[in-house]
């Protein structure tokens, strides 16, 4: 049994944890997913959280923490209000709290932990998957650091502030202005309504400890090139010594494919002979091992994986730009995925639940997901990699207020947001951090900096920087927003009917996609966030009506694809709060249209060739 599994079992059976578990209770009065009743505070989101740099020596800190909500002027609480289940946000039902924090308050978290004997003499890293928004962390009364940003992981080396033995204390202070600040916050608002949802404050992804050597692998950047049949691996290593090497080894199952040892500051370039290309139909993944070697001795070792996959654009025979996967045209079709949960808000109740939405999307015959103004935990992208799901990744929006128009005869015109220098810097810093954190996931094929002019600013500058920073992916500069002649994609939104601008006018320089359409609503009694006044772009009274309308939309796609449409995004995966536009209800208990019929309907879309 692996070491980290043993650690988790020890945590699960400890007397303290069992006593805490009996005190936790989910907030009542809200609909819940089927996984909610199986949430165990002693072992919540217990899976290893970072699939691209795996070590055995780790310890999960999810579970019950003490919490308090105090005035924003409070630097240290004098007492705690009760317990909160991490990693669920304060406002969520699964947190056991279900309270709003707001701009005038902060939330404090506290817990203790004891390091196992095997951690002694090692560098101890404290990892946070994501905390929304400004987090300050103290360990044993000494400040370990702070982090600004709600969607990217961060790490502190706490080795120097740990006691030699016994319980160690960690305190986290979080402030989040929600929609009253300029920071990226996606769909969160203080007054939920229409397409805007409940705020999310504080820790909402896994918190964990890791024991590593003094010299350790901190990050890798893995870049496949299918045209040259190579994989380039750049490693970031902390506390290097002169003469240190990095050995990178690629495997296909148990078979070694390639290996190269280089100076630790150099890139390794592996030749992958006759590579199997990753695609939705064949999501083939290769294993990777990265080893730090000093004078022939292994200093650090971690496991990862990669795929041989290419996303690009090229004109068809009519000169219309097309989106290509592995140098072949493949129509990309998928739902707009908000990533919200009635019981956990930003956080799925379990890893099984996290995977469920992707698997069901695949079962319905989609080959792509647009992750809408939210970033998911690393394991969500891992499941997409494993299942074969293409991903368009949005930047969470914020600092809104500029104008945008989209109606017949109007193609994405409006104003750009005049952001403050602080707001601009917040955006740039977090967008780069999100791209860095998720670079290695082959499922991500498109970056989307802006959506519908929500805080859209300096579009050409931001888009060009994004393209330069990651030239291996396509960039959709402004999905449905204020269009500029920049980026790879022109993304048109149209509700409810599908449609695109004239490819002869707009498709010579950019790929034409339908970035949002549909929004067909069907509220189902017993499965809605509220009892009445639910909302859809176009609502129906029964499933037959819904199916007939949806089928009529798909029947128009063959002509649109032949004319120049390379991709389309249907709104949306699930109902979310008062929105009832989902393919599934918010509690995931009802799929509104038959999966097999959807799969059969969608299958034909992927065989259509451009004219």
Q: Can I get a quick summary?
A:
The chain is of the alpha/beta class and 611 residues long.
What does this structure look like?
The protein has 611 residues and is an alpha/beta fold. It has three domains: 3-212, Jelly Rolls (Sandwich); 227-306, Immunoglobulin-like, CATH 2.60.40; 311-607, Glycosidases (TIM Barrel). The chain is built from ten helices and 36 strands. The protein has an eight-stranded parallel beta sheet with strand order 30-28-25-24-23-36-33-32. α3 (351-363) packs parallel to α4 (378-387). The chain is globular and about 70 Å long. Residues 1-21 have low confidence and may be disordered.
Topology:
Layout (H helix, E strand, L loop, with lengths): L2 H11 L1 H7 L36 E3 L2 E9 L10 E5 L18 E9 L9 E6 L2 E2 L1 E6 L2 E7 L5 E4 L10 E8 L26 E2 L3 E6 L3 E10 L4 E9 L6 E8 L2 E9 L4 E4 L14 E9 L2 E10 L4 E5 L5 E5 L2 E2 L2 E6 L13 H13 L4 E4 L6 H10 L2 E5 L9 E4 L2 E5 L6 H18 L5 E5 L1 E2 L7 H11 L4 E2 L2 E2 L9 E5 L9 H4 L4 E8 L1 E2 L16 E2 L3 H12 L2 H7 L1 E7 L23 H9 L8
Parallel strand pairs: 23-24, 23-36, 24-25, 25-28, 28-30, 29-31, 32-33, 33-36, 34-35
Antiparallel strand pairs: 1-12, 2-3, 2-4, 4-10, 5-9, 5-12, 6-11, 7-8, 7-10, 13-14, 14-17, 15-16, 15-18, 18-19, 20-21, 21-22, 26-27
